[in-house]
Amino acid sequence: MTNKMIAFGHNAYVRFRVGTFFLRSPLLLLLRLYWGWQFAQSGWGKLHRLPQVTEYFASLRIPFPGVNAPFVAGLEYVGGLLLIIGLFSRVTGLLLAVDMIVAYLAADQEALHSIFSDPGKFYNADPYTFLFASLFILIFGPGKFALDYFLQRHMEHSYHMSAAHGGTRIRSGFPDMYT
What we know:
The structure is a single chain. By secondary structure, the protein is an all-alpha fold. It has helices at 2-21, 24-47, 50-59, 65-85, 89-107, 109-113, 119-123, 127-140, 147-164. The longest helix is centred in the N-terminal third of the chain and has 24 residues, at 24-47.
């Protein structure tokens, strides 16, 4: 009786894992679409108010505000669009995460310093959800509903075709990063 219960529990757990595996890419797609749109809107707003953003950056003592304001605006706008389509997603996630860390350091140091003493202040700060979404894409990748996934599959197909016809085979050694 005990062995049957263990087998039943194991089979149920395996089915549960398989079922949740199929939710991974749709979740990543929704995350990319929503937060990509949020980043794109934020960047678009900054691009259309560059004098005010430059002045704000100067008030925060961010070096070279005249250069950094359009850079950050462009990064958020283009990065958001790249997240939406799932192109260069991990690099974009890294750049946007750094952008949000700088936002914490420059504009909300009190929230950053209270990460352990008052976590509510940290995760209620404006950069938190943007940072979380960026790190999520950086760590888990864009999923299967992304241009990155299709480009990787195309490159793997080209690699196998080249190898089949005696071409030079160069393999990166990296695991499948998008599934």
